[in-house]
Write a structure and sequence with these properties.
The complex is a heterodimer. Chain A has helices at residues 46-61, 96-106, 118-124, 126-135, 180-186, 200-212, 234-237, 239-245, 298-304, 327-342, 348-356; strands spanning 68-72, 87-90, 111-117, 140-145, 191-196, 217-222, 246-248, 256-257, 264-268, 274-278, 314-321, 360-363. Chain A is α/β, with parallel strands linked by helices. Chain A has an 8-stranded mixed β-sheet, sandwiched between helices. A 3-stranded antiparallel β-sheet of chain A has the order 8-9-10. In chain A, a hairpin with a 5-residue loop joins β9 and β10 (274-278). Chain A is globular and about 90 Å long. By secondary structure, chain B is of the alpha/beta class. In chain B, strands 11-10-12-13-15-14-23 form a 7-stranded mixed β-sheet, with helices on both faces. The longest helix of chain B has 20 residues, at 195-214. Classes of the chains: A alpha/beta, B alpha/beta. The interface between A and B is large, with 64 and 72 residues. β2 of chain A pairs parallel with β19 of chain B.
Chain lengths: 364, 632
């Protein structure tokens, strides 16, 4: 695929303030990002593919390895930082976005990544996730969605379809699942994308765009759990069934699914909703051209709703990528402005003035 | 009537009114005038949790008490010498605290039948003789203020009425010979863009002063001479402000940027407010989505090499507990301020209590020791903030600061230190490998400990060659890799405990001037003032009693056991049901006796004097029978 997705005219890169390797320094390789720890996911776990893609992609950023930090919560995916030879913190359940916010805001010279899962990010840590997105902190959030709790051995998760039978829902789950992308868009996220563990090229492309996005980049990665929810995404992984179902979003092009001979395009109905129709029937109808940079999230939201859980049509790619001042830039700017208007950085004299205040008296 | 002011050695004034009457501001201004005069002082604001409870009702009463003297003041005073009651509710809510013979200034305009009925008065107490044992000074405060502002045609009657607190301030300033220049300057700056309101407030202030001078009702005027104090520059400061300044000073002296992650909660929010205004000092404040987010941000910043701070009250600590445990496992510096309030649950948000000691000590899963320090007075909050940072950065550990509502909002004069005389808190980050592997190659072990402090290295991301991962899963000693090895866990639990137990803290000093006391009164935190004042009074009654105060609650000072064992009886007053007593009994097997109250207010001196007297008497009657009245 072309690089449409990475060239969205964003004013400043997400890693603009992160030190890069100097002239003459050898580029890093995947091996440089591989730690000495034995990887302990189950055989066949989708996490292996994501780890390989991330380790393979990171050298491309050209950043100094010591300026990259991965923060995770709790769950299978949250073991991720141990396997990357960068700085890392395996924190507690759901709190990674808050910890990453404090780190990214106080350290603009770091590239900060959050690795989380559907339970970690959308259940116990839901509040931190939506607020990190709303604030638009300069972090990249990778949400591994396998629609199940793996580490606790197979309970239903907030993205499990209604009716899912698990150990904790022997008669089927009665909960309505979250649509992670709709949630992110509703939380004012500036970058929202979806990709899949098994599509290395697409995953890498989305990672590239997410890393260069200045602000909170939210990436949902469909990831197979071979033990507790095997085949959850088989319909869109299987070569035969995926063609009609996968909707690869390309900025500036019509939203479409299917192959050359059997293509469907997305059109806007008079009531504002969107529907797929055979290409032949689309003539004269308003075809939806994907615009990831549209400040209005309505179209992106409509795309996020295309998959109603049946995977009839599953959009993949960048739903939204807009530019909005980041929270951490603004916080640092206020401090810089305050220091500047004081005329000089804080010193003993300035501290003395603060401690004394305006209302003192002297005892001789 | 012109007269020469009578000399008093101390005065306690309580301003009480509706929560919309501006009593906190009036109290603050009177305090500032008093501080400028050089009196020693101590204040106690007391206000409802509701921002504006229905006006004229008992729940809506807000008050501010100030104790000032020509000598060293230790508490805001048990009982007011003067009560200013702005309405019937304020009178009713406070009368029980006012000793007979004291002065009560009432705003007669508010004693309407309707207002009297609101608080259950069937007759007007000003007229029915029920206040005959007090010196009641009825003043039509509202109407006189409105009349004094007659020429301000642009102001509504309501706006004029609002200036009545300045009239009251003027009157009291006259009564106690206070200078008003500070208040004038304050008003000028506050209302710089509202000239009419400024002029009206000044006019009301002067009207109050003149009223005192010209009305026979106020025949007496008083003076309280300045208190003797060590030479230096002084200011008045509240506990919350002193904490905020202490952290800024610690940031300055450590060279670490201060990052506060916090969620608003009474009575801790003022620390967030003060620090949010100090960006000029490089302070970063992040108002988080919740309590957990607040401490998460602070911990993230600490991981990045900043001075991480989170501030809250008891319910917030309950939410932060898991992250405090993570910080203990990560062994990163982090300061957690708990401005304690009445509990459990929401409890008494605006009232003070010391009931989070055991929560701070034990309120986490697993073996998770955390050092605890507690300030003993509003000004001491500054020093305790720096001490907390010293412990956190030296030992790479989360540290608790247990303040409380009484210290947070109370104020006292503070001898302002000079920045360059403050403790040096310089921090050394690790930037090089600290060990060699089996093959003799230099390696970095994130859990290689300093042999003296047992602290692990602090490495800020961005340091080349020392990339490593830490987390909440148990780590192998030295390497920090994930480890489920039984012996390793046993070792790590003991190492973390030994690190905290080994923190160097100053020995406890005992105040025992005669050296023959058999009773020791031991306190911690904000009970310092009431205990010291009570001990002083007990001694003036001829009793022999010793006193000591803990600022370090975990670990305890090394000499504490020896001190406890050298007295026949140890009284431990606490604003809880015996939490420190429980720890002391467990640690030292000493039969300490609790003196408790949880009324949301500090101890009164008289209740402590009574407990001390009983304990001393019990000894002289029969050393074996140490059971005492007010003691549990």
């Amino acid at each position: 695929m072309t690089s449409h997705v990475t060239d969205l005219g964003m004013p400043r890169s997400g890693v603009a303030d992160v030190p890069t390797l100097g002239e003459g320094q050898l580029p890093l390789t995947k091996k440089d990002f591989t730690s000495d720890q034995e990887v302990r996911w189950c055989p066949g776990c989708g996490d292996y593919a994501v780890l390989a893609a991330v380790q393979g992609f990171l050298p491309e950023l050209g950043l100094r390895r010591e300026n990259i930090v991965f923060v995770s919560g709790i769950g299978c995916s949250s073991r991720f930082p141990y396997y990357l030879d960068t700085y890392g913190m395996h924190s507690i359940h759901g709190r990674a976005p808050a910890i990453a916010t404090g780190l990214a805001t106080s350290r603009p010279d770091l590239s900060v990544w959050v690795v989380t899962g559907d339970g970690d990010a959308l259940s116990i840590g839901g509040n931190h996730l939506i607020h990190a997105l709303r604030r638009n902190v300069n972090i990249t959030i990778l949400l591994f969605n396998n629609k199940i709790y793996g580490l606790t051995k197979g309970q239903y998760s907030p993205t499990s379809e209604t009716g899912t039978i698990t150990k904790s829902t022997p008669m089927g789950s009665v909960d309505t699942p979250f649509n992670p992308l709709s949630l992110a868009l509703g939380a004012e996220a500036t970058f929202v994308a979806r990709t899949m563990d098994s599509d290395r090229a697409h995953l890498t492309e989305v990672l590239r765009a997410a890393a260069s996005h200045r602000g909170a980049a939210f990436v949902e990665i469909y990831q197979n759990c071979p033990i507790f929810n095997d085949g959850a995404f088989q319909l869109i992984k299987d070569r035969d069934s995926q063609a009609a179902r996968l909707v690869k979003l390309v900025h500036g092009e019509p939203v479409s699914a299917g192959t050359e001979n059997d293509r469907q395009v997305l059109v806007r109905e008079p009531n504002g909703s969107v529907t797929f129709v055979p290409e032949a029937e689309a003539a004269g109808r308003p075809v939806v051209i994907h615009d990831a940079t549209d400040p209005n999230p309505t179209a992106a939201f409509a795309l996020s709703r295309l998959d109603d859980g049946t995977m009839a049509h599953v959009p993949m790619g960048i739903f939204r990528s807009i530019s909005r001042p980041t929270n951490d830039d603004l916080v640092r700017e206020q401090i810089a402005t305050a220091v500047e208007s004081a005329g000089r950085p804080s010193d003993d004299t300035a501290l003395d003035a603060l401690l004394r205040g305006n209302d003192t008296w002297t005892v001789e | 009537m012109a007269n020469t002011p009578a000399q008093l050695d101390k005065v306690v004034i309580r301003f009480a009114g509706d929560s919309g009457d501006g009593m906190q501001l009036t109290g603050d201004r009177f305090t500032s005038e008093t501080a400028a005069l050089g009196n020693d002082l101590s204040t106690l604001p007391n206000f409802p949790a509701e921002i504006r409870a229905p006006s004229g009702t008992l729940p809506g009463v807000s008050s501010f008490q100030l104790h000032f003297a020509d000598h060293d003041v230790l508490t805001p005073g048990d009982a007011p010498d003067v009560l200013v009651a702005m309405n019937p509710a304020a009178l009713k809510a406070n009368l029980a605290d006012v000793p007979r013979g004291a002065t009560i200034i009432v705003n007669t305009d508010e004693f309407s039948r309707r207002n009297l009925a609101k608080v259950g008065y069937t007759t007007n107490p000003i007229e029915d003789g029920s206040l005959d044992s007090w010196q009641v000074r009825p003043v039509a405060l509202t109407s006189i203020t409105v009349e004094a502002l007659a020429e301000f045609e642009s102001l509504t009657r309501k706006e004029k009425e609002r200036a009545k607190n300045m009239f009251a301030l003027g009157l009291l300033s006259w009564m106690f010979t206070r200078p008003t220049a500070g208040t004038e300057a304050f008003l000028k700056s506050k209302f710089s863009d509202k000239p009419d309101i400024l002029a009206a407030n000044l006019a009301a202030l002067y009207a109050g002063l003149h009223y005192g001078e010209t009305t026979e009702e106020f025949a007496h005027r008083y003076e309280v001479a300045p208190a003797a104090a060590p030479a230096g520059t002084y200011r008045n400061i509240t506990g919350n402000t002193a904490l905020a300044y202490g952290f800024v000073a610690a940031s300055h002296r450590s060279g670490l940027p201060l990052v506060l992650g916090s969620y608003p909660i009474t009575p801790a929010s003022d620390i967030l407010h003060v620090l949010a205004g100090l960006k000029r000092y490089g302070v970063m404040t992040l108002q988080a989505e919740d309590e957990i987010g607040g401490i998460g941000m602070a911990l993230g910043a600490a991981f990045g090499g900043a001075l991480g701070l989170t501030t809250t009250s008891g319910p917030g600590i309950a939410l932060k507990s898991e992250t405090i445990g993570l910080a203990a496992a990560l062994e990163l510096p982090l300061v957690i301020v708990d401005v304690q309030r009445g509990g459990p649950s929401t409890g008494l948000p605006t009232k003070t209590e010391q009931s989070d000691l055991l929560q701070a000590m034990f309120g986490r899963n697993g073996e998770s020791p955390v050092p605890i320090v507690a300030p003993q007075s509003p000004a001491d909050c500054f020093d305790i903030a720096m001490e907390a940072v010293r412990i956190a950065t030296t030992y790479r550990t989360p540290v608790f600061v247990l303040s409380d509502g009484y210290l947070a909002n109370g104020s006292e004069p503070w001898r302002v230190p000079s920045a360059r005389d403050l403790p040096d808190l310089k921090v050394e980050f690790t930037t090089e490998p600290n060990a060699t592997d089996d093959g003799g190659e230099p390696v970095f072990y994130p859990y290689q400990r300093d042999p003296e402090t047992l602290a692990r290295p602090w490495v800020a991301p961005g340091t080349p060659g020392l990339e490593h991962r830490i987390g909440g899963i148990e780590k192998a000693n030295l390497t920090g890799d994930i480890s489920y090895d039984p012996d390793n866990h046993d070792l790590m639990v003991r190492l973390r405990a030994a690190k905290v137990a080994g923190i160097t803290v100053p020995g406890i000093e005992v105040d025992d001037p005669t050296g023959d006391a058999e009773v020791l009164v031991l306190g911690w935190g904000s009970t310092y003032g009431p205990i010291a004042a009570a001990v002083r009074e007990a001694r003036s009654l001829g009793l022999s009693v010793a006193r000591a105060h803990l600022r370090h609650l975990n670990p305890f000072p090394a000499n504490l056991g020896e001190v406890l064992r050298s007295y026949s009886r140890v009284l431990v007053p606490e604003m809880n049901t015996g939490q420190l007593a429980l720890l002391l009994r467990a640690e030292y097997l000493v039969d300490v006796q609790s003196v408790n109250q949880v009324r949301g207010l500090p101890f009164t001196i008289s209740e402590l004097v009574e407990a001390i007297t009983t304990a001393v008497d019990a000894g002289s009657a029969s050393p074996a029978a140490a059971t005492v009245g007010a003691v549990r």
